[in-house]
Amino acid sequence: MDISIYFEPIPDDLLTGNEITSSRFADHLIVHNTREGFPDTSMFDIAVFGVADDRASVANAGTALACNEVRKQWYALFPGAWQSRIADLGNIRAGHTIEDTYYALSSTVSYLIGNRILPVVIGGGHDLTYAIYQAYEQLEQIVNMAVVDPRFDLGETHDEINSHTYLSRIIMRKPNFLFNFTNLGYQTYYIDQQALELMKKLFFDCYRLGSLTANLKSAEPLLRNADFLSFDISAVRAADAPGHAQASPNGFTGEQACQLVRYAAMSDKLSCIGIFEYNPAYDNRALTAQLLAQMIWYAIDGYNSRKADFPQAGNNDFIRYIVPTNDFSDGIVFLKSRKTDRWWMEVKCESENREKYAGHYIVPCMYEDYKTACNNEIPDRWWQVYQKLM
Predict the structure, then answer these.
(1) Most buried among 52, 76, 249, 303, using CB within 10 Å?
(2) What CA–CA distance (Å, rounded) separates 8 from 29?
(3) What's the pTM value of the predicted model, to 2 decimals?
(4) What is the C-alpha to C-alpha distance for residues 364 and 378, in angstroms, rounded to an integer?
(5) Is the per-residue pLDDT at 136 higher than 80?
(6) Are residues 363 and 271 in the same domain?
(7) In which band, very low, low, confident or very high, does the pLDDT at 357 lie, cut at 50, 70 and 90?
(8) Coil, helix or strand for 245?
(9) Which residue in 359, 358, 356, 364 sits closest to 381, CA to CA?
(10) Are residues 372 and 267 in the same domain?
């Protein structure tokens, strides 16, 4: 498949700057430029690219211009001591219709994931999450989505698809490949209580901003369980990320945003990252562009910190604990990685469904979940997944 037809090359003026030395990012990337053309996908492990389309970004027009503003900041950073090969593919052109853009994005992401390349998507509205979900549909892959967003973006089912309604469109699609949706950082005053009840009925995971900022490490197993991370930059407080038309005084800090992205990228399971809704028109002193550049840096750093420790049959790198409970005679199986000390638990799954839900019935957890089971209580994470598998 030739995905190069969807892309425009990186402008030459972004690749030549007197302030950039040979030790900075711009000189360590495989780039799509007018001179060398589109790079060979066998040459890189991570593909960063933009999407120049904001037609469905509600009340935040201007996000189509985000990509190159972020590059100005990203190219000037110093890379880490990494082994992975990184490419900047340029920007996906806006199609004749928004559906054309969705098709180009979903085809690109599907192709990259199929070739074991991590796509990092920047720019455009949060509705592009819908197109990335379609990429997993094309691959017929059941997906866990983690979304960092102060809102749920459910909208009304009859509304046009946009950055405030894309989630309801994903939920309503048939056949449906969404196994789990996790919202991190919702702010209750932006949430209709009926929407919150719907999330509970669907057994989706929703975590308030305050509960996560009080203990950010609790987000790590949630992000370790994700195949796809979608980050709405409005989830970061305006002091750290003013580049959004509806920037809020409350939200994650810039440091926390970087940590969340790193947590996600460290997971061997994660296969795509998207960072959306950055609008340069509102960006004071390019603070938001700098933050996105640093989030990309941490995504790459997380990818290079992977330990290949996802539990699989025949893997002896795990200590296995069986905790008996009153509810289940077989008990709950916990797995602890010898490499990283991270924890997982096996959720009861019928043998005929094990292949279908491979990677989903083994759930990342924390040591606290193990202690909960030792006190003869079923961990909440275990129950939620169990109800999905029933």
Answers:
(1) 303
(2) 17
(3) 0.95
(4) 15
(5) yes
(6) no
(7) confident
(8) coil
(9) 364
(10) no
Considering the domain architecture, whether residues 206 and 347 belong to the same structural domain is answered as no
- Domain residues for 76? 3-303
Question: Whose structure tokens read 């043998």?
Answer: 351
Domain count, the chain: 2
Total residue length of the chain: 390
Number of Cβ atoms within 10 Å of the Cβ of 291: 26
CB 127 within 8 Å of CB 161:
yes
The last residue of a domain, from among 255, 279, 303: 303
Do 233 and 260 belong to one domain? yes
Residue 366: CB atoms within 10 Å: 18
Residues 265 and 373 in one domain: no
Same domain, 29 and 126: yes
Per-residue pLDDT reduced to its tens digit, 245-282: 999 999 999 999 999 999 999 999 999 999 999 999 99
Rounded CA separation 325/8 (Å) = 58
Chain CA centroid to CA 88, Å: 18
pLDDT per residue as tens digits for the range 313-353? 667 889 999 999 888 878 999 999 999 999 999 998 877 67
124 pLDDT higher than 90: yes
What percent of the chain stands above pLDDT 90?
84
User: What sign does the dihedral 145-339-294-271 (CA atoms) show?
Assistant: negative
- Predicted confidence (pLDDT) at residue 158 exceeds the cutoff of 70: no
